[in-house]
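thought: fold this chain, then report.
action: predict
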Amino acid sequence: MKKILYFIICSFVLCSCEKELDITSPSTLTFQGFWDSEDGARAAHAGLYANFRSNAGNFWIMGEVRSDMFGGNTFETPSNVGYIESNISSSVVPFDNWAGLYTYIHRLNDFIANVPNVEFNNPDEQSHMMGQAYGMRAFYYYALLRTWGKVPISTEPQVNIDPANVSKARSPKSEVMQLIKDDLATSLDYFGSDGSYWNNKRIYWSKAATLALKGDVYIWSGNILGGGNADFQEAKNALEQIAALNVALESDFAAVWDYANQENNEFIFSFDYEQDEAYNFYSALTGRGTEIQPQFDQYGNSMGDFTVNGNNRYGPSEKILLALDDPLDSRSTETFIKLYKDDNGGAGYPTYDSDAYAGAMTKKFIGTVVSGSRITTNDVPLYRYADVLLLIAEAKNLLGEDPSTEINAVRARAYGSNYNVTIHGYTNGSQSENTDAILEERFKEFATEGKRWWDLRRAGDTYVFDNNDYISPSESYLLQLPISIDMIGRNPLLEQTEGY
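observation:
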């Protein structure tokens, strides 16, 4: 995303939801003349993606860090330990001001309100843009709903703010979910039969992305909000349409993360990173030379010549290291570079050895070396086709159907030529056995991709309590985050999250 007009304009816009909703001031979201041309609309469209990418780190933290994925050895002071251990209260709030997400929702609201009134040379492109915008807004609200539960709803541009009605209360979860579903339906209406990828790139939202999000949303709605089989069937129907939209599993798991293969057909939507423009947040899972280079990898190779860049503040848990401790499964060696204090007499450590283990770096997003420096500019997928297959497995299981086909498709790719269906294949079991198998497969497949916390939450509270050492059934209120006292002070209509 280049530095274009709308992004510059947006830098002067309101800084947070609370400031937008609670402080008397004229709105600067709509500039006279800005929406008079197709060029202005296109500039605004590009700006939406710069905004979306700026939140990728927060989305990752929200979706991963509170799970059982991290908490292991780090070479530096670990990040977000309190969040990992759910040390959360009304005075210890992980994200203030709704993580700033309403700033970007208001920009989407402005786009949605104005772009239909702009004359385009090609109306199909205008419709595609609108499909993208509604899909992204649905995702923002889904992130809010999953993180806080009840949240304010705002769907109109903030123009001529009236202090009498600027403050908004938190809307019930059912109303927030209905807004999300409505936005998904509108997105699909705008896309119609157009399953193309904008500019032939998967760094833009698409019909496939909306369908993937719809499947995710409707499983959550059916399982967490009581929608039941009607929602599960809607999820399955949406997810099964994606196969026809030029997507497929890469044949080799390592190829999914090949730096030269970032536009592969497994990615449905990914955040775009470019050298000298923006770097992804995975540098926090790599390390510095003084820490990494004295170590040895699992093959017994010295890391002395390894080019590093970043820090090492999130350590994979022993649980995920053990889950991936199968040399026949390619995810074992393509997810983390496990680092050891010695080379084990040249033999390395083909299986995990806790006594010699020093720490790990993520390998999925390790970047590339340019002029002697490592840059972390891998595109980071929000949805990829393996995700879709395992979401289909979830929907099938919840409908009482056999999910083994989808589980085994992902598993067979992971094992490659080592795959033996009699050993590695999954056979349909009870609903609870299937849920455990799907969660285990997702745990291994999407390690470090910002999925695990949401996977456990979507499965149901019991699965969170069973897999998280820091939350018990008596503390179920911790499943959703509190809001800050300052937020309530600036908006008297806000109530604290229940339980805090």
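thought: worth noting. The chain has 21 helices and seven strands.
final: tokens above.
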